[in-house]
Amino acid sequence: MPLDLTSATGPLCTTDPDLQDVFDDLQGNILNGHGRDQAVLLFLQFVPERIDEVKAVLATLASNWLTSASAQLAASAAFRTESQDAGLFVHAALSGAGYVALGIEDAQIPAAAALRGRPSTITIGQQQVTFYESDVFTQGMKARRAALQDPPVEEWENGFRAEIHALILIADDSNTDLINGEAQLRALFTSDTGPIAHVVSTQRGFGLRRTFPTDNGPLGQNVEHFGYVDGRSQPALLDTQLTEDQNRDGTAIWDPTAPPRLALVADPGGTDGVSFGSFLVFRKLEQNVKGFKLAQRRLADELKLPLKLIGAMAVGRFEDGTPVVLQPGENAEPAAPNDFDYSSDASGRRCPFHAHIRKTNPRLESVLAGGGFAEDDEEERGHRIARRGIPYGGGLSDFTDPDTLPERGVGLLFMCYQSDLWEQFEFMQRFWCNNDKFLRPGLRGSAQDAPDYVTNTGMDSIVGQQQQLLDPITGFTAPPTTWPSEWGQQAEATRASIARFVTMRGGEYFFSPSLTFLRSLAPQKAAPVALIMAPEPTPRTQPVVKRPAY
To answer: Which has more pLDDT, 502 or 331?
Structure first.
């Protein structure tokens, strides 16, 4: 039975027999993260004269290499029940320029879901301003720099300045198998007469783990380079993701469920009702760990507050994942809950409005009939993204000695999936993270003559960006200016801030197509056997390490 995205209202059932064809044709990592501890990302630029060979290789990838959603679900189940290593994971995505380079007809290039039906222009004063853009994918991330307040392209890493056509994601828990898989996949894009695609950038990610007093196992939690637990509060796209994220008796404060249309769109190059894909955002985010930690210390000294509380106010959670809106200290019981909202903190006295998780997931706080951010619950929840990613650049720092902390060279290989780049990632980055007017519910439209520190909540303390580029809709952005003088007390103006310690070093927009579409790229005339046959996988030699379930 086909999947109807317009009528599917909740998480997909992984055991539904009517959905197995969909899972067989959908790539893994979209509905659920791949779960491996190591990853290599190859960014490709196709050789124009060898496009037919490129198509043949992409078809080979789809037939012999790429991990389907159904294969990923089976591997995850085997891991949970038998501690069986899931093995090599491979995923492929094409940029808008990649579709053009392949000569794909316009009708087969995926289009944004555009579920809200927004107007393409709005009137501000006497000026008509472009508002909704459905062709963000075909424009590419470089063309969206001004809207996102990204650094100039000349400041991006060399490889990302080039035109990028495809992304190949390779992941495994075994470093040996990952290296072998990478070598074999690189070989597919090289023939006896030279490359058919150039690898313009290679990015390597390694999972970071940290143990906290409330951890149940010895391996600890996944964290990022600032030392905070990462990956909390994901939208639940599958029923198997609800066991820890939602109270099944209906008493939950926050409902994490999401319909499949949040991430999936029909692939026009596949089979109706069966073939789906998702728009993929990649951004290399460099973290200035030393600057972040020193700013924490300066602000803690100024406000006479505990150092860890200052960090929690910037992130919205303590290092172990405990939401700061719930209590002024970490190690909550149970650890790192996700069942909360901000209804008890309308004035930002516990969790500042510019805290990262409050900016990126306001938990229905922005909903106001006739308001400028969200007219209803569905609209705000529709901006959510399925976050993926992995740290890069080395191990976790020793935070006891600030002088040894890195300022460059470490960060996050950020990825996320969605059905509409403008409506989800761009809306979140532009109108929430970079917008110093978002969000102060109690003062919307009622403080026109108040000073800036009252009406301006500040940009996102972690990923907010300001490049002094005028956004015609939101205006200039500004750093955070108000922090509670004490947890639960009135916020006060201060010149100190925690901001701009994450720098975007390059990225691109992609679409992860269905396996059917990629297989359809195979030329009618059979390609040489050496090209289409995938090498045998390397035998597993390492013992399986018991890790948290995916």
So the answer is: 502
- Specify the higher pLDDT residue, 90 or 444: 90
Picking from 115, 122, 141, 69, the residue whose alpha carbon sits closest to that of residue 381 is 115
Q: Which residues contact 192 (CB under 8 A, 6 or more apart)?
A: none
Question: In a 3-state reduction of DSSP, which class is residue 530?
Answer: helix
**Beta bridge pairs of residue 236:** 257
443-449 LR contacts (CB < 8 Å, sep 24+): 444/368, 444/371, 444/372
Cβ neighbours of residue 31 closer than 8 Å, sequence gap 6 or more: 12, 69, 237, 238, 260, 263, 386
- C-alpha distance from residue 197 to each of 187, 201, 312, 541 (Å): 10, 12, 45, 32
Cβ-based neighbours of 446, under 8 Å, separated by 6 or more: none
Partner residues linked to 279 by β-bridges: 418, 511
Question: Around Cβ 204, how many Cβ atoms within 10 Å?
Answer: 14
User: What span, in angstroms and rounded, lies between the C-alpha atoms of 550 and 548?
Assistant: 6
Q: With a cut of 50, say whether residue 194 has pLDDT above it.
A: yes
Rounded CA separation 413/170 (Å): 13
Residue 244 — φ and ψ, nearest 5°?
Answer: -105, -15
Burial of 453 (0-12, 13-18, 19+ CB in 10 A): middle
Task: Report the C-alpha gap between 478 and 456 in whole angstroms.
Answer: 8
pLDDT tens column, 31-52: 999 999 999 999 999 999 999 9
Listed in sequence order, the residues at least 6 apart from 340 whose beta carbon sits closer than 8 Å to its beta carbon are 253, 254, 323, 325, 326, 363
Q: Which of 11-25, 75-89, 183-197, 437-451 has the weakest average pLDDT? A: 437-451
Rg (CA), the chain: 23
How is 329-380 classified by DSSP, letter by letter?
Answer: SS--SSSS-----STT-TT-SSS-TTSHHHHH--TTTTB-TT-SSBSSHHHH
Which residue type does 428 have?
A: M
Give yes or no for a contact between 511 and 165, defined as CB atoms under 8 angstroms apart: no
Query: Which residue, among 436, 431, 420, has the nearest Cα to 374 in the 3D structure?
Result: 431
Q: What b/e string do you get for 508-525 counting C-beta neighbours within 10 Å, with b at 16 or more?
A: bbbbbbbbbbbbbbbeee
Kindly write down the DSSP assignment for every residue of 136-204, as one continuous string. HHHH-TGGGHHHHTPPPGGGS-HHHHS---EEEEEEES-HHHHHHHHHHHHHHTEETTEESEEEEEEEE
